[in-house]
Amino acid sequence: MSDIVEKTLTALPGLFLQNQPGGGPAAAKASFSSRLGSLVRGITALTSKHEEEKLIQQELSSLKATVSAPTTTLKMMKECMVRLIYCEMLGYDASFGYIHAIKLAQQGNLLEKRVGYLAVSLFLHESHELLLLLVNTVVKDLQSTNLVEVCMALTVVSQIFPREMIPAVLPLIEDKLQHSKEIIRRKAVLALYKFHLIAPNQVQHIHIKFRKALCDRDVGVMAASLHIYLRMIKENSSGYKDLTGSFVTILKQVVGGKLPVDFNYHSVPAPWLQIQLLRILGLLGKDDQRTSELMYDVLDESLRRAELNHNVTYAILFECVHTVYSIYPKSELLEKAAKCIGKFVLSPKINLKYLGLKALTYVIQQDPTLALQHQMTIIECLDHPDPIIKRETLELLYRITNAQNVTVIVQKMLEYLHQSKEEYVIVNLVGKIAELAEKYAPDNAWFIQTMNAVFSVGGDVMHPDIPNNFLRLLAEGFDDETEDQQLRLYAVQSYLTLLDMENVFYPQRFLQVMSWVLGEYSYLLDKETPAEVIAKLYKLLMNDSVSSETKTWLIAAVTKLTPQAHSSDTVERLIHEFTISLDTCMRQHAFELKHLHENVELMTSLLPVDRSCEDLAVDASLSFLDGFVAEGLSQGAAPYKPHHQRQEEKLSQEKVLNFEPYGLSFSSSGFTGRQSPAGISLGSDISGNSAETGLKETNSLKLEGIKKLWGKEGYLPKKESKTGDESGALPIPQESIMENVDQTITKKDQSQVLTQSKEEKEKQLLASSLFVGLGSESTVNLLGKADTVSHKFRRKSKIKEAKSGEASSTHNMTCSSFSSLSNVAYEDDYYLNTLHDRGDKELKTFSLNSELLDSESLTELPLVEKFSNCSLSTPSLFADNSMEIFHPPQSIAASVAKESSLASSFLEETTEYIHSNAMEVCNNETISVSSYKIWKDDCLLMVWSVTNKSGLELKSANLEIFPAENFKVTEQPGCCLPIMEAESTKSFQYSVQIEKPFTEGILSGFIRPLKISSEDFGKLWLSFANDVKQNVKMSESQAALPSALKTLQQKLRLHIIEIIGNEGLLACQLLPSIPCLLHCRVYADVLALWFRSSCSTLPDYLLYQCQKVIEGS
Amino acid sequence: MIKYFLIVNKQGQTRLSKYYEHVDINKHTLLETEVVKRCLSRSNEQCSFIEYKDFKLIHRQYAALFIVVGVDDTETEMAIYEFIHNSVEVLDEYFSRVSELDKMFNLDKVHIILDEMVCRIVETNRERILAPLLILYVRNQAW
Question: Measured between CB atoms, which of B106, B115, B125 is closest to A220?
């Protein structure tokens, strides 16, 4: 290939003399811009980085002179911009030209303007300060009568626009939605899409116009609107179910070739549009049978039509398969989709193979049979020369791991890890191995060895949760105490062996893990004495390759072991060595050790054996120092100011540009010269008079300069200041696949193995070890003991957390206004609505396998009813289904019994938490199901009460709850009740948790009050960079601040920290632990809300909710 | 989401780069060198999709030029792969058989064309992509 380049290079001079190659409509133009020409020529001729630097620096200095010279014409400026773009593209800073790019966009004629806009979009980023200067130009161009100018302005808006200036252009852009030209309408939609991305709450009111765009007569406009819909549906699919029909119709038309021919790509009609629509349908049909039914036909047609042998049809097919497996299943379609996957996987084309593996990975959880069908291909891919294919295969295997094949799969993963050098891959895989090991470890030895491999390979790049979790697992243990001890002992032994090896270097994290374990659990050893362990640790301490952080771990371990070792020379040597260390931290530890060593009694009481899990009471306010502080103050010492206060003072003295647009948001008018929320917060300090003095000072200081402080985010280092010992950050174990395994699998016929070559046999062997547990036989055995096997290392629930939970929930309960089920159901209650939302999101399948045992007419009558998608608004769903088979004798007394028992269970469970009223989900003459929600401190607890109204015993009642994406549902213990006695009520509790932090969709169930002091509020406030402000008009009924805040507290579960005059501080957190702070200020009937959070989207969400609550009430 | 669109040659020199999410300019060169290194190390028998950090890189080679698109995991690789080809076809149509030098001398035009096509995949219809650019230049010549 390089000879082509050479040819090009040799041909260059000639080319420049004549004309440009190609010579399209504009190519001829290039030669006249000679400077650009020479730059390009220079760049092409470059041979080294050094030359490039010289050339570009020269170019930049000449450009610098040209752009600022007053004689430079706009035409020349345009050429300069292109040259600047070149320089930036090669990585050289050309920031001096940014302002000229903006000027060019403002002043130039059409072409120059376009290049100016182009340069701006390439040079600047969303939050660049110069971007504000562009707003005026954009506004002017949007109003221009020249369509080309409008087009350009819209293009640049859809690429880059400052969030806070959206209100300035929004009405103009909305107008453009009605423009007669398709291109303008299309670009307007894209601009709104951009706004929706960066500030969704600002475009909330134009949703109706989006619908118009969707129905636009022009394909381009409609296609553009799909981007917005895809996003909105991703956030909240239930709100757009009514559009399913439209999307299906559009897809039908596209697939049927009804679009203009110029949308075809290689005679496939608008492939990317099809893909987009398929994605939307997949989201809409997810867990929703009725919606899914609407799309079966068109999906079938798409699968059928996309048979052309072209890459782009494969892309469509892939998307189609994805959709078919996302929506409510239909066996016919699944079959076709599976066939498609087969075609992909078996294809000799490597790209298709990759797609096939990816599709398999996606569908494997629903349909493990496919893995069995393709097991040989998967095995081949595992040894594929292309590492990407290998990697994808491992991903696939990860999904089908169970207790039986875990050793083989983890081994394969480790093999891959040893070859890979890429950090991202290592971090990712190491996390997966650790997760699998924890979940499915067959025995202690394997577990410890695997974790050793994880620590040595993952080293210092892996996620810090992995060693933390591992140590926690060791420390907290699981249910069996002897088993725990064995695991610990094994760990200690294996680490000692590892440390004995010479010339091996372990990552620091691994050494830290080792030192902790050795420090805690060496007492379990019977052969080695603590002194010997100390000697080994000492050897490590003297090693230069060990970091000082690890050394502190090591010395802590030594400290723990010292009381057990009685007298040890090594300890004394160590003390001697480190009390003169240059590292202050080490010296501190050494001195501590020294003093403890002198007082053995204190030492043993301070460092008891195996007590790492017990709680310590800590006086966080350091109140025992109050006397000392008072004495210091009386002697004239300066009062202590917390860090953030000092920083504030320092900042208030600096001059900072004001970036807030005047008159647009309340901040400029409302907050000018006012105190910051942080300033207020200092009023309520916990200890000492020092802070009180500090308060007065800051207040007087702040009155001058405070506005600057609130000017712009980002000048403070953004800290993740989430406290706590990351109790919520554990990787969440995935549900074992076996639980979903379909029982209709026929296991691979073993007889055909006989006549195969040795290599084949090996592969078969590997296959059988990999795919074990996916077949039907093993599933049956496993289902019984799945729980004990698959969760070998399931953690004990932490008592500590529970305690703190109780302590903090001091809500006043207005418990149980529980008159009868029927009239509580649909009151206009916000909570109920949110419950309703959640209910919609989660597909609830009540499959009741009821066997009527004592029914005299029938011997055994197994009935399976499936009530899928029990929408709460249709409690009569039972009637839709095949209920006529099921006629048990009706008992009237049952309902009374049910009510009372339900109410009582309600009470005992939930007195300490806020909960919603119960409402009936569905009901018939035999069974009624109702549910209510409890907002627990760490999760949302859904309680489903199933009442057997009939006089007969129900067997194998089975309540299945499937979580929506991003949520995790765990069944509370003691919920499995195979038999339901007659006329009784059983409650099933499921706790719903957010699986990974996200802030789209329905979160209201996961907002919890965040109880912090005003001072902490101040600190947090400063550390958060994402803020959102808005004024909300209050209704008359709650014009006073306290009542408004009370509404927020009740409806959104925000915590009111303090109300000072007409300002209020509130805080909440999104489970597991994303805090959000709210500062409110009232003037006249307007409530100014100001949110800050560490998460960028949470404020937007909360603002929207608050707005709804305040304006709605 | 498309994160960036790069055109680089076999020597690893960037011929066009467009970032759809802000990346600090100092990191551009590093990222581009890394990306090119990865693409060059792939043979034709290996697949055109590469994992790089938390991105997927989709690359396609045209003579001495590589076009590389970085996407996150919400995109289908094959769709992007064909989208690359679509963009090349559009450039071909405009420049009538596009070459590396065309792109270099007309960097601004290539960018304008791309602006019409990407910010997600927003337009794939050739005539519509080229219309604004043609108008600009026709008008400009009449000036």
Answer: B125
Angle at CA A198, nearest 5°, toward A197 and A203?
Answer: 75
Count Cβ neighbours within 10 Å for each residue of A107-121 and write b for 16 or more, e otherwise.
ebebbbbbbbbbbbb
Question: What would the mean pLDDT of A262-277 be, rounded to a whole number?
Answer: 91
From A148, A386, A424, residue closest to B47, measured CB to CB = A386
**Is residue A790 within 8 Å of residue A439, measured between CB atoms?**
yes
Predicted local distance difference test score (pLDDT) of residue A284: 93
In the block, residue with structure tokens 């790492």: A612
User: What's the pLDDT tens digit per position in A572-597?
Assistant: 888 888 888 888 888 888 888 888 88
Element (H, E) at A1080: strand A1074-1083
The separation between CA B27 and the C-alpha centre of its own chain, rounded to angstroms, equals 19
Dihedral, CA atoms, A682, A687, A689, A690, nearest 10 degrees?
-70
Shortest distance, CA B64 to any CA of chain A (angstroms) = 6
Count of C-beta atoms within a 10 Å radius of residue A77: 23
Provide the mean pLDDT of chain A: 73
Q: Which of A874, A868, A867 is CA-nearest to residue A836? A: A874
- Structural domain containing residue B81: 2-141
Does the distance separating the beta carbons of B86 and A37 come in below 8 Å?
no
pLDDT tens column, B129-141: 888 888 888 766 6
ipTM: 0.94
Cα–Cα distances in Å, from A1 out to A42, B53, B68? 22, 29, 18
Instruction: Give the minimum alpha-carbon distance from B114 to chain A in angstroms, rounded to a whole number.
Output: 11
Please state which of the ranges A928-937, A999-1008, A1076-1085 shows the lowest mean pLDDT.
A999-1008
- DSSP-based three-state secondary structure for A1033: strand
H or E stretch covering A943: strand A940-948
Cα A231 to Cα A228, A279, A325, B122, distances in angstroms: 5, 10, 20, 14
- Check the CA dihedral A396-A398-A402-A405 and report its sign: positive
Q: Is the peptide bond before A1072 cis (omega within 30 degrees of 0)?
A: yes
Q: Mapping DSSP to helix (H, G, I), strand (E, B) and coil, where does residue A320 land?
A: helix
B1 touches chain A (CB under 8 A): no
Number of structural domains chain B divides into = 1
Q: Are A902 and A895 in contact (CB under 8 A)?
A: no
Residue A255 identity (one-letter amino acid): V
Q: What residue in B sits closest to A387 (Cα-Cα)?
A: B46
CB A281 within 8 A of CB A328: no
Distance CA A284, CA A276 (A): 13
pTM (two decimals): 0.62
Instruction: Say how far apart CA B13 and CA B35 lie, in whole Å.
Output: 11
Q: Where are the alpha helices (DSSP H) in A94-202?
A: 98-107, 110-123, 132-142, 147-159, 166-176, 182-198
Residue among A141, A248, A209, A351 nearest B45 (CA): A351
CA–CA distances in Å: residue A433 to residues A217, A415, A430, A457, B54 = 53, 12, 5, 11, 18
Q: Please name the residue that has the structure tokens 């040595």.
A: A456
Distance CA A860, CA A865 (A): 16
Find residues 26-65 of chain B whose CB sits inside 8 Å of chain A: 26, 28-29, 32, 45-54, 63-64
The 3-class SS string of A33-45 reads CHHHHHHHHHHHC
The domain that contains B121 carries what CATH number?
Answer: 3.30.450.60
Rounded Cα distance between A36 and A21, Å, is 16
Task: Please check whether residue B58 is in contact with residue B77, taking contact to mean a CB–CB distance below 8 angstroms.
Answer: yes
Are residues A262 and B101, on separate chains, in Cβ contact within 8 Å? no
The bridge status of strand B2-9 relative to strand A914-915 is unpaired
